[in-house]
Protein backbone atom coordinates (compact mmCIF):
# COMPACT_ATOMS: atom_id res chain seq x y z
CA UNK A 1 0.00 0.00 0.00
CA UNK A 2 1.26 3.45 -0.87
CA UNK A 3 1.04 6.11 1.77
CA UNK A 4 2.57 8.28 4.43
CA UNK A 5 3.48 6.92 7.84
CA UNK A 6 4.25 8.91 10.95
CA UNK A 7 5.63 7.63 14.23
CA UNK A 8 5.07 7.60 17.04
CA UNK A 9 1.34 8.27 17.23
CA UNK A 10 1.71 9.78 20.70
CA UNK A 11 4.85 11.34 22.16
CA UNK A 12 5.57 12.82 25.55
CA UNK A 13 8.43 15.23 26.11
CA UNK A 14 9.96 16.51 29.28
CA UNK A 15 11.11 20.09 29.57
CA UNK A 16 14.54 20.61 27.97
CA UNK A 17 14.42 17.50 25.79
CA UNK A 18 14.78 17.29 22.05
CA UNK A 19 12.45 14.82 20.33
CA UNK A 20 12.31 13.60 16.74
CA UNK A 21 9.13 12.81 14.84
CA UNK A 22 9.40 10.39 11.96
CA UNK A 23 7.73 10.79 8.56
CA UNK A 24 8.13 8.27 5.73
CA UNK A 25 6.39 8.09 2.36
CA UNK A 26 6.45 5.46 -0.38
CA UNK A 27 4.52 7.53 -2.93
CA UNK A 28 7.69 8.63 -4.75
CA UNK A 29 6.76 12.24 -4.00
CA UNK A 30 9.39 14.95 -4.32
CA UNK A 31 7.85 17.46 -1.91
CA UNK A 32 7.29 16.94 1.81
CA UNK A 33 5.90 19.23 4.49
CA UNK A 34 5.53 19.54 8.24
CA UNK A 35 2.57 21.32 9.82
CA UNK A 36 1.51 22.04 13.35
CA UNK A 37 -2.15 22.14 14.38
CA UNK A 38 -3.35 23.58 17.68
CA UNK A 39 -6.89 23.03 19.01
CA UNK A 40 -9.44 25.00 17.02
CA UNK A 41 -6.82 26.37 14.67
CA UNK A 42 -5.74 25.77 11.12
CA UNK A 43 -2.54 24.17 9.94
CA UNK A 44 0.63 26.21 10.22
CA UNK A 45 3.64 25.35 8.07
CA UNK A 46 6.85 24.57 9.94
CA UNK A 47 9.24 23.41 7.19
CA UNK A 48 8.96 22.11 3.66
CA UNK A 49 11.26 20.36 1.23
CA UNK A 50 10.84 20.37 -2.52
CA UNK A 51 13.72 18.02 -3.24
CA UNK A 52 16.26 15.82 -1.48
CA UNK A 53 18.97 17.71 0.45
CA UNK A 54 17.03 20.95 0.30
CA UNK A 55 14.43 22.45 2.64
CA UNK A 56 12.95 25.84 3.49
CA UNK A 57 11.55 27.41 6.62
CA UNK A 58 7.83 27.83 6.84
CA UNK A 59 5.91 30.35 8.92
CA UNK A 60 6.80 28.95 12.37
CA UNK A 61 10.24 27.31 12.02
CA UNK A 62 11.76 28.64 15.26
CA UNK A 63 12.57 25.80 17.67
CA UNK A 64 12.34 23.11 14.98
CA UNK A 65 14.84 21.46 12.64
CA UNK A 66 14.54 19.01 9.74
CA UNK A 67 16.67 16.97 7.37
CA UNK A 68 15.97 15.49 3.94
CA UNK A 69 18.71 12.98 3.24
CA UNK A 70 16.42 10.53 1.44
CA UNK A 71 13.47 11.16 -0.85
CA UNK A 72 11.14 9.05 1.28
CA UNK A 73 12.06 10.48 4.69
CA UNK A 74 11.60 13.91 6.31
CA UNK A 75 12.11 13.77 10.08
CA UNK A 76 11.26 16.73 12.31
CA UNK A 77 13.16 17.51 15.51
CA UNK A 78 11.40 19.57 18.14
CA UNK A 79 14.17 21.22 20.12
CA UNK A 80 14.17 22.56 23.66
CA UNK A 81 14.11 26.03 22.13
CA UNK A 82 10.46 25.48 21.12
CA UNK A 83 8.68 26.90 24.15
CA UNK A 84 5.18 25.61 23.50
CA UNK A 85 5.50 22.35 21.56
CA UNK A 86 2.30 20.64 22.68
CA UNK A 87 0.33 20.19 19.44
CA UNK A 88 -0.76 17.79 16.72
CA UNK A 89 2.01 17.44 14.11
CA UNK A 90 1.13 16.51 10.55
CA UNK A 91 3.45 15.41 7.79
CA UNK A 92 2.33 15.71 4.19
CA UNK A 93 3.69 15.07 0.73
CA UNK A 94 2.89 15.98 -2.86
CA UNK A 95 4.29 14.77 -6.15
CA UNK A 96 5.97 18.14 -6.47
CA UNK A 97 5.19 21.68 -5.33
CA UNK A 98 3.96 23.08 -8.63
CA UNK A 99 0.27 23.44 -9.51
CA UNK A 100 -1.93 21.48 -9.61
CA UNK A 101 -0.13 19.19 -7.16
CA UNK A 102 -2.31 17.65 -4.46
CA UNK A 103 -1.05 17.27 -0.91
CA UNK A 104 -1.70 14.11 1.11
CA UNK A 105 -1.35 13.74 4.87
CA UNK A 106 0.02 11.15 7.24
CA UNK A 107 -1.94 10.12 10.35
CA UNK A 108 -0.18 12.63 12.63
CA UNK A 109 1.80 12.62 15.88
CA UNK A 110 0.35 14.12 19.01
CA UNK A 111 3.11 15.65 21.14
CA UNK A 112 2.56 16.55 24.78
CA UNK A 113 5.01 18.31 27.06
CA UNK A 114 4.96 16.99 30.61
CA UNK B 1 0.52 37.81 4.04
CA UNK B 2 -1.46 35.43 1.88
CA UNK B 3 -4.64 34.33 3.62
CA UNK B 4 -7.49 31.87 3.37
CA UNK B 5 -10.67 32.70 5.27
CA UNK B 6 -13.45 30.38 6.40
CA UNK B 7 -16.39 30.77 8.74
CA UNK B 8 -15.55 28.64 11.79
CA UNK B 9 -19.16 27.56 12.36
CA UNK B 10 -20.54 25.32 13.60
CA UNK B 11 -22.79 24.97 10.60
CA UNK B 12 -25.75 22.78 11.54
CA UNK B 13 -27.90 21.15 8.87
CA UNK B 14 -30.56 18.44 9.12
CA UNK B 15 -29.89 15.01 7.66
CA UNK B 16 -30.65 14.94 3.95
CA UNK B 17 -30.17 18.68 3.45
CA UNK B 18 -27.52 20.48 1.40
CA UNK B 19 -24.55 21.83 3.35
CA UNK B 20 -22.78 24.83 1.83
CA UNK B 21 -19.24 25.65 2.95
CA UNK B 22 -17.44 28.77 1.80
CA UNK B 23 -13.86 29.99 1.53
CA UNK B 24 -12.18 33.17 0.28
CA UNK B 25 -8.52 33.64 -0.51
CA UNK B 26 -6.27 36.64 -0.96
CA UNK B 27 -3.61 35.47 -3.47
CA UNK B 28 -5.06 36.28 -6.88
CA UNK B 29 -2.34 34.20 -8.58
CA UNK B 30 -3.38 30.95 -6.88
CA UNK B 31 -4.16 28.12 -9.28
CA UNK B 32 -5.05 25.07 -7.19
CA UNK B 33 -7.73 24.72 -4.54
CA UNK B 34 -8.55 21.85 -2.22
CA UNK B 35 -11.15 20.77 0.29
CA UNK B 36 -10.15 18.43 3.11
CA UNK B 37 -12.32 16.75 5.72
CA UNK B 38 -10.90 16.31 9.21
CA UNK B 39 -12.57 14.22 11.87
CA UNK B 40 -11.77 15.04 15.47
CA UNK B 41 -8.32 13.73 16.42
CA UNK B 42 -7.55 12.56 12.88
CA UNK B 43 -5.52 13.92 9.99
CA UNK B 44 -7.09 15.75 7.02
CA UNK B 45 -8.28 13.65 4.08
CA UNK B 46 -8.75 15.04 0.60
CA UNK B 47 -12.35 15.47 -0.54
CA UNK B 48 -12.06 17.53 -3.72
CA UNK B 49 -9.59 19.51 -5.76
CA UNK B 50 -10.50 22.18 -8.32
CA UNK B 51 -8.35 24.19 -10.68
CA UNK B 52 -10.70 25.86 -13.20
CA UNK B 53 -13.58 28.28 -12.79
CA UNK B 54 -16.95 26.58 -12.50
CA UNK B 55 -18.27 23.47 -10.83
CA UNK B 56 -16.72 20.06 -10.28
CA UNK B 57 -18.87 17.21 -9.04
CA UNK B 58 -17.84 13.97 -7.34
CA UNK B 59 -20.68 11.92 -5.91
CA UNK B 60 -22.48 13.97 -3.27
CA UNK B 61 -19.80 16.67 -3.32
CA UNK B 62 -19.59 19.69 -5.63
CA UNK B 63 -16.74 22.18 -5.53
CA UNK B 64 -17.28 25.62 -7.04
CA UNK B 65 -14.52 28.06 -7.99
CA UNK B 66 -14.80 31.73 -8.93
CA UNK B 67 -11.33 33.17 -9.44
CA UNK B 68 -12.62 36.68 -10.21
CA UNK B 69 -14.27 36.81 -6.78
CA UNK B 70 -11.49 34.75 -5.16
CA UNK B 71 -14.07 32.38 -3.77
CA UNK B 72 -14.25 28.60 -3.41
CA UNK B 73 -17.19 26.64 -2.06
CA UNK B 74 -18.09 23.05 -1.28
CA UNK B 75 -21.64 21.73 -1.46
CA UNK B 76 -22.56 18.46 0.21
CA UNK B 77 -25.86 17.04 -1.00
CA UNK B 78 -27.97 14.59 1.03
CA UNK B 79 -25.88 15.33 4.13
CA UNK B 80 -25.36 12.40 6.47
CA UNK B 81 -24.40 12.35 10.17
CA UNK B 82 -21.09 10.79 9.06
CA UNK B 83 -20.34 14.05 7.23
CA UNK B 84 -20.06 15.80 10.61
CA UNK B 85 -16.45 16.99 10.69
CA UNK B 86 -14.29 20.06 10.17
CA UNK B 87 -13.79 21.03 6.53
CA UNK B 88 -10.53 22.73 5.63
CA UNK B 89 -10.07 24.87 2.55
CA UNK B 90 -6.51 24.95 1.16
CA UNK B 91 -4.93 27.02 -1.58
CA UNK B 92 -1.65 26.38 -3.38
CA UNK B 93 -0.23 29.87 -3.63
CA UNK B 94 1.71 31.37 -6.50
CA UNK B 95 5.41 32.14 -6.27
CA UNK B 96 6.65 30.08 -3.33
CA UNK B 97 4.11 27.28 -3.99
CA UNK B 98 3.14 26.86 -0.38
CA UNK B 99 -0.23 25.52 0.69
CA UNK B 100 -2.20 27.93 2.86
CA UNK B 101 -5.01 26.49 4.96
CA UNK B 102 -8.08 28.13 6.38
CA UNK B 103 -8.99 27.49 10.01
CA UNK B 104 -11.83 25.21 8.96
CA UNK B 105 -15.61 25.13 9.21
CA UNK B 106 -17.15 22.71 11.65
CA UNK B 107 -20.18 20.95 10.14
CA UNK B 108 -22.80 19.20 12.23
CA UNK B 109 -25.39 17.05 10.46
CA UNK B 110 -28.35 16.45 12.74
CA UNK B 111 -30.10 13.06 12.53
State the main characteristics.
heterodimer; A: 114 residues; mainly beta; seven-stranded mixed beta sheet; four-stranded antiparallel beta sheet; 11 strands; globular; B: 111 residues; six-stranded mixed beta sheet; five-stranded antiparallel beta sheet
Give a verbal description of the structure.
The complex is a heterodimer of chains A (114) and B (111). Chain A is an all-beta fold and 114 residues long. Chain A is built from no helices and eleven strands. In chain A, the strands form two sheets. In chain A, strands 2, 4, 5, 6, 9, 10 and 11 form a seven-stranded mixed β-sheet that branches. In chain A, a hairpin with a 2-residue loop joins β5 and β6. The termini of chain A are far apart. By secondary structure, chain B is mainly β. Chain B is built from no helices and eleven strands. Chain B has strands at 4-6, 11-14, 19-25, 32-38, 45-50, 54-58, 61-66, 71-76, 85-92, 99-101, 105-110. In chain B, strands 2, 4, 5, 9, 10 and 11 form a six-stranded mixed β-sheet that branches. A five-stranded antiparallel β-sheet of chain B has the order 1-3-8-7-6, with no helix packed on it. The N and C termini of chain B lie far apart (40 Å). The interface between A and B is medium-sized, with 24 and 23 residues.
Topology diagram in text:
The complex is a heterodimer of chains A (114) and B (111).
Chain A: E1 4-7, E2 10-13, E3 19-25, E4 31-37, E5 43-51, E6 54-57, E7 64-66, E8 76-78, E9 87-94, E10 103-105, E11 109-113
Parallel strand pairs in A: 2-11
Antiparallel strand pairs in A: 1-3, 3-8, 4-5, 4-9, 5-6, 7-8, 9-10, 9-11
Chain B: E1 4-6, E2 11-14, E3 19-25, E4 32-38, E5 45-50, E6 54-58, E7 61-66, E8 71-76, E9 85-92, E10 99-101, E11 105-110
What structural class results from the helix and strand content of chain B?
mainly beta
Low-confidence stretches of chain B: none
- Specify the helix fraction band of chain A: under 10%
Q: How would the global form of chain B be characterised?
A: globular
Oligomer: heterodimer
* Discrete helix count of chain B: 0
Q: Which percent range fits the helix content of chain B?
A: under 10%
Q: How far apart lie the N and C ends of chain B? A: 40 Å
Which two chains touch over the largest interface?
A: A-B, 24 and 23 residues
Radius of gyration of chain A using CA atoms only? 13 Å
Helix and strand run of chain A: EEEEEEEEEEE
Largest sheet of chain B: 6 strands, mixed
**Low-pLDDT runs of chain A:** none
- Sequence of secondary-structure elements of chain B: EEEEEEEEEEE
Amino acid sequence: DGGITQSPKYLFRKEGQNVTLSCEQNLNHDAMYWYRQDPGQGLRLIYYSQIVNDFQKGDIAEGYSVSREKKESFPLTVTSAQKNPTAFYLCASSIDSRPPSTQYFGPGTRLTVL
Amino acid sequence: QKEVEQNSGPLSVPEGAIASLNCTYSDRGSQSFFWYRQYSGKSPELIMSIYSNGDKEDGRFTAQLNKASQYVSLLIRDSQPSDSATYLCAVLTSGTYKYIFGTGTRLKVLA
